[in-house]
From TrEMBL, chain A:
CDD domains: Otubain_C65. InterPro entries: OTU_dom, Papain-like_cys_pep_sf, Peptidase_C65_otubain, Peptidase_C65_otubain_sub1, Peptidase_C65_otubain_sub2. Residues 47-249 form the OTU domain. SUPFAM superfamilies: Cysteine proteinases. It comes from Triparma columacea. This is ubiquitinyl hydrolase 1.
TrEMBL record, chain B:
This is E2 ubiquitin-conjugating enzyme. The active site is at C88. SMART domains: UBCc. One of its GO terms (molecular function) is ubiquitin conjugating enzyme activity.
Length: 249, 153
């Protein structure tokens, strides 16, 4: 666990790292680490990764990064669909009892990210487009940080939109609103599986999570897939206890 | 984004003026939008009825990503309020979220007055009286209410 903590504490860590070859994980986990057998397995499926800063928003940030880069090459209809989703979300949040005044500036940042930044990066295309997304995603206190934060109320909204989510609720929460208030909306609260499912379904993305827990000596990696991703939005993450990083096949 | 805190505070101010919650007033200092003064009136038909309780709210440039620091200026007697006026309230500490604007913060504090949270005592005497001797607790609250009028003048 020391390895994970040392990553989380480093304040100079970028919000999202450069693209590393998957072998970079060997520098994080020493040969004696119980995580190593599963890391070897991952290395045969994935070629590279990005390390996400561990400040309690790593899943939201990894998810947003993957969505935005996915949008660079997806058909225009996908960008259109997401823009419509974000634009309508503010009045839905208002209907659900949230203060639109409090949320509006976060919402506006998200719309601008899609309508200006993503559009601009799509036009540039290729590496230049990717670099544009990387730049906006790594700016401390920048607009992407506001968008990551806006995903929390979006996640709450999704969880409250369908009673099916309540059946997954741990018994320590009185209802889904209580769960959202304590585990989704506060800044810095990390995503658990329920939030991952809600976000995948809210954004209509397909999220694949490879679980690396250090408990399997044979190196077996459990993989869970959430959401359909029918129009091609894909998010691939590695989960190790308390932290998510982005993976690339 | 050093102006985003100020932008949001202006927005919060507009909302508080256009849609003021019952029993709450608040406004920034003329000289500094990052410091606010507010008054919460004690809810009717409770021991707090008639009280006028002053608070100060201080915001950092990280608002709304970080909670403001909020404290009562009026002397209080309440299980979740420290002697120096600091408030023990989940949304001002580990459950802070930018979904709360000033209106929501003050409304939460107002409801905390009549609905203390016994699991996080900040004033042990108030906490003990609240659970063991409600009559004496209410008498002490009435004293605070009367004191708040004196503070006013």
């Amino acid at each position: 666990m020391d390895e994970i903590e040392s990553i989380n504490e480093a304040s100079s860590t970028p919000l999202v790292s450069q693209l590393y070859p998957i072998s970079h994980l060997n520098t994080i986990f020493p040969p004696s680490s119980p995580f190593r057998p599963q890391i070897s397995t991952l290395s045969s499926t994935f070629t590279s990764l990005r390390i996400i800063k561990g400040d309690g928003s790593c899943f939201y940030r990894a998810f947003l990064y993957a969505i935005l880069t996915s949008l660079l090459t997806s058909p225009p209809s996908v960008l259109h669909r997401l823009t419509t989703y974000i634009k309508t979300s503010l009045s839905l949040l208002g209907d659900a009892g949230y203060s639109k005044d409090a949320l509006e500036m976060f919402h506006d940042e998200f719309v601008e990210l899609l309508e200006v930044t993503v559009k601009d990066c799509r036009e540039k295309g290729g590496q230049e487009g990717m670099d544009g997304i990387h730049k906006v995603m790594t700016e401390e206190g920048g607009s992407a940080e506001y968008c990551c934060w806006y995903m929390r109320p979006l996640c709450s909204l999704q969880l409250k939109s369908d009673p099916k989510y309540s059946s997954f609720l741990p018994s320590s929460y009185s209802d889904i609103s209580d769960f959202c208030k304590r585990e989704v909306e506060p800044t810095g609260r990390e995503c658990d599986q329920l939030q991952v499912i809600a976000l995948a379904e809210a954004f209509e993305a397909r999220v694949e999570v490879s679980y690396v827990d250090g408990h399997d000596k044979e190196g077996k990696v459990t993989k869970h897939t959430f959401g359909e991703g029918t129009d091609g939005l894909m998010v691939n993450v590695m989960y190790r206890p308390g932290h998510y990083d982005l993976l690339y096949p | 984004m050093s102006t985003s805190a100020r932008r949001r505070l202006l927005r919060d101010f507009r909302r508080l003026q256009n849609d003021p919650p019952s029993g709450i007033t608040g406004a920034p200092l003329d000289s500094n939008i990052m410091v606010w003064q507010a008054v919460i009136f004690g809810p009717d038909e409770t021991a707090w009825e008639g009280g006028t309780f002053k608070l100060t709210l201080e915001f950092s440039e990280d608002y709304p990503n970080k909670a403001p620091s909020v404290r009562f200026l009026t002397k209080m007697f309440h299980p979740n309020i420290y002697n120096d006026g600091q408030i023990c309230l989940d949304i001002l500490q580990n459950q802070w979220s930018p979904i709360y604007d000033i209106s929501a913060i003050l409304t939460s504090i107002q409801s905390l007055l009549c609905d203390p949270n016994p699991s996080s005592p900040a004033n042990s005497e108030a906490s003990r009286l609240f659970s063991e001797n409600r009559r004496e607790y209410n008498r002490r609250v009435r004293e605070i209410v009367e004191q708040s009028w004196v503070d006013e003048s």
